[in-house]
Amino acid sequence: MSVVPNHHPAQYTLLRHAAGTLQPARSLVVATHLPFCPECQASIRLGEGLGGALLSELSPAEMAQDALTRTLARLDMPASVMASSAETVALAAGVPLPASLQGLVRPIWRWLAPGISRIVVDVASGSDREQAYLLRVAPGKSLPDHGHHGWEATCVLAGSFADTTGEYGPGDVAETDVSVMHQPVAGPGEACICLIAWEGRLRMRGLFARLLQPLLGV
Amino acid sequence: MHADIRHVACSPSGDPARPGSRMSLDPRPARKSSDATEDVALILAIAGPRDRAAFVALFHRYAPRLKSWFQRSGSAPEQAEDLAQETMLAVWRKADSFDPSRAGAATWIFTIARNQRIDAVRRMPRRSLDADDPSLAPQAPVAPDAVFDTAQREIRLREALSTLPAEQADVVRLSFFEDRPHADIERVLGVPLGTVKSRLRLAMNRLRTHLGDYGPPSRDGERS
User: Fold this and answer.
1) Is residue A202 scored above 80 in pLDDT?
2) Residue A139: CATH number of its domain
3) Given B16, B103, B161, which is nearest A50 (Cβ)?
4) Level-2 CATH architecture, domain B30-139
5) Which candidate from B177, B193, B214 shows the least CB-CB separation from A46?
6) Which residues in chain A are closer than 8 Å to B221, comparing Cβ atoms?
7) What is the pTM of this model?
8) What are the chain B neighbours of A152 within 8 Å (beta carbons)?
9) At what angle do helices B105-121 and A38-57 cross, to 10 degrees?
């Protein structure tokens, strides 16, 4: 984590993450970026401060008459504790599973296409419009040329990739909206491992890509 | 404008929230610096001695605003009532992880409310925000200066928010209260997405410049 990322989520994305109003799969990408980036952590603190300020300025709503009594009666009841696994899981040598994805994946790579493996991430959004995967792409391999009917957000965990919008290394985030068509290519040397999330169906260009579409499940 | 919310927080005449309506926040902050410092003291009294009287005071100050916030965020009144109570219960349970050098009282309570709402909306317990959750901050000795500084920072942030140009303040507020994809915020404001994003970036930079302690105001690498 010594290298500071060059590509960050938009301020708008960060604020909605802090507000709790960002799409769940997109929030996962932001949460995965944050440990890499003190600057964006500061943005989140600012956003949470704004949340506190807005909360303070709201007009009070009327609580139920027994609200306080009922809450006081529950103070001494034991809280249900969520089990948390302390074991460290690795995605590859030297690449630990990000804390943001703990409990959301079974960290077993599945073959998807030559040079490309994936792990499905449980977005837990209650909506099937959003999806998230961990992708591992062999050095120099390219993903299908594709575009989006919705947004796409990616955070690199190891290695790098490049597309028409730039080069992305560990901690970097790439966000695209509907208009962008791109064909990401993994950098040389080591496999590119990234978290990728998107909403809606992909638009594939080229025969190979369209053949791959059923495999991708998109 | 009420000078002191302690006299009005439990008043049965509180305005009901109007979900979906334009924000009608008061131009001047309702609460004073001393309130922010007192809120911190109340949470610390809950954390250490498990002081129920402190909890009752904090409940009166925050539960009605939390209910209002949940309603503005799209919850029906009954659900907003439940979530406000759940949030206050979580405040009681998590009080010993409150670190006043890191976040002010309102900010900390906001993060708990935000997480309660996300948990309620999604089918599974949320984890994505936990790594940055101020409520998970390790417990450390509390320096009185830190409490004062944090309270001051909350006050300055409220003042800075009130000085934003209306079009920037609108985007900030809609980011919190309109739980919709941003295409819909464009529609609410009648401007393109790029404009929404650039207004928000201007707002954040202005706040950073004004406050000085939330990182540098400019940034590269953001595509919009």
Assistant:
1) no
2) 2.60.120.10
3) B161
4) Orthogonal Bundle (1.10)
5) B214
6) 5-8, 172
7) 0.84
8) none
9) 90
**Chain B residues in contact with A31 (beta carbon < 8 A):** 128-129, 131-132
The whole domain housing A114 covers 90-216
Type and span of the H or E element at B79: helix B77-94
Residues of B with Cβ-Cβ distance to A21 under 8 angstroms = 73, 175-179
C-alpha to C-alpha distance for B48 and A204, rounded to whole angstroms: 58
CA distances from B124 to A16, A122, A156, B127, B207 (A): 20, 10, 25, 9, 34
Q: How far apart are the C-alpha atoms of B208 and B163, rounded to whole Å?
A: 13
How many structural domains is chain A composed of?
Answer: 1
Residue A189 lies in a domain: yes
Pick the CATH number of B163-224 from 1.10.246, 1.10.10, 3.40.50, 1.10.287: 1.10.10
Domain contains A130: yes
Residue among A13, A14, A21 with most chain B CBs within 10 A, to mutate:
A21
Beta bridge partners of B41: none
Q: Is A172 within a domain?
A: yes
Query: Which residues on chain B are in Cβ contact (under 8 Å) with A6?
Result: 220-221
- Cβ <8 Å between B65 and A42: no
- Taking CB atoms and an 8 Å limit, are B103 and A46 in contact across chains? no
Residue corresponding to tokens 């309102």: B106
Give the mean pLDDT per block of 10 residues along chain B (224 residues): 35 36 45 78 92 97 96 90 96 92 92 90 50 44 71 88 93 80 69 89 92 68 44
Closest by CA position to A183, among listed A199, A200, A165: A165
* A148 within some domain: yes
CB contact under 8 A, A71 and B176: no
Is B12 in contact with A62 (Cβ distance < 8 A)? yes
